[in-house]
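Support case: adenosine-5'-triphosphate complex. Customer-provided input:
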Amino acid sequence: MASKLIISPFTLAYYTYQCFHSTGWLGPVSIFGYFIIGTIVNKVLMSPIVSKLCFHCLLAAPAKAAFLAGRVEHMRTDRRLQSLLQTQRELIGKELWLYIGINTFDYLGSILSYVIIAIPIFSGVYGDLSPTELSALVSKNAFVSIYLIGCFSQLIDLSSTVTDVAGYTHRIGELQETLLSLGRKKNNNYSEAKASWDLDGHSGEDPVPRDTAFLLERMTLSVPSSGKLLIKDLSLRISQGNSVMIVGNTGTGKTSLLRVLGGLWESTQGSIKMLTCFGPRGVVFLPQRPFFTDGSLREQVRSADDERIVRFLELAGLVTLFIEGDFESQPCCRYDILSPGEMQRLSFARLFYLQPKYAVLDEATSALTEEVEHELYRVCLQLGMTLISVGHRASLEKFHSWILKLHGEGRWELTQREKVKRLPVGEGC
Ligand SMILES: Nc1ncnc2c1ncn2[C@@H]1O[C@H](COP(=O)(O)OP(=O)(O)OP(=O)(O)O)[C@@H](O)[C@H]1O
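Agent response - structure generated as follows:
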């Protein structure tokens, strides 16, 4: 693209000069004018097609999904399909005009190349040339004119590519800035946390204990869009070995609290500080609905060592699902065929591989039985992870040192359980 961008002005200037040389100003001016008119007509014909295409894509996806949803969705599917067909018909009608426009532009362009040379010939400018020289001049001019039109088209195509690239660059720049500011914020959080701890009179040694991952001070949280109060004045320090379970009724703000911990939402008042990093050396988040990229099982678990993969899969209770040793071709590239429970097990296999210090589990075992949930939590603790989990089953409480109960409308209750023991894999709790 860069080479085209550099060369285009030169070829344009060269062929404009060549055209000017044989036809005078008439040639370049007519071609330029013709090109502008062609571009305007093209734009007018294109814009309704682009918007129709977007609408068509929007309609197509839910229509397909709804089609699979069975009889309950039959009526809705029918309506959407009708609307989809209607849009398709309108699209074809509009595209027809676009193709007519493009072809007419091409045909008229070649005629124009002869018209612009015909004028000086018939007005006697080339009266002294022989018929052979005249025919050579006409064919040379036709070539120059058509090439010139081609150059203009290329330049316009390039301008739209440059616009796209500028847009992407802008977005990537924004992303980079956001990541940088998040990094800065995290560093500030750490020093601020240290400073505020100093104010409490703990100066001298390292004020914020190294093993602290999250520090919440009189934090108030409301839903950003509605302002609905979820948690009021919560102070909490989450440190290694002190797993916290967040419980409460539906809609009381359990997931919202995890969003704040992960930096997705901001607290309304007070402060919340994450003093660790994302990833194996810090914190890993496991959502209720796991996300996997396309790729082999090895890529999902990200280990080059087959023995380790088998071990993680064994720990997650998944090994029978996969043929041993064939991790490159195993069907996680089709993870959509896995059941929700198998997906949750697979995300635990990944967690076991990463072995982070902290694991934030948002109902990460909701599709599994109590026994399997028990086993997975036990392995997490055995691998030395500190858990921050949201769950509904009371049987999960024994894996946590603290229970944070959210009552809604800002009310909460924090209770301490006895210290959780780390159990070796395979033993009961
Ligand atoms: N993205 C969002 N935009 C606006 N409101 C939201 C959003 N996500 C959640 N909420 C609202 O915030 C409130 C708390 O939601 P949250 O998901 O934290 O509840 P929860 O306690 O995790 O519930 P559950 O047990 O059902 O998962 C709810 O009233 C919900 O409607």
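The pocket of adenosine-5'-triphosphate is lined by residues 223, 225, 228, 230, 248, 250-256 (CB under 6 Å).

Case will auto-close in a few days if no follow-up is received.
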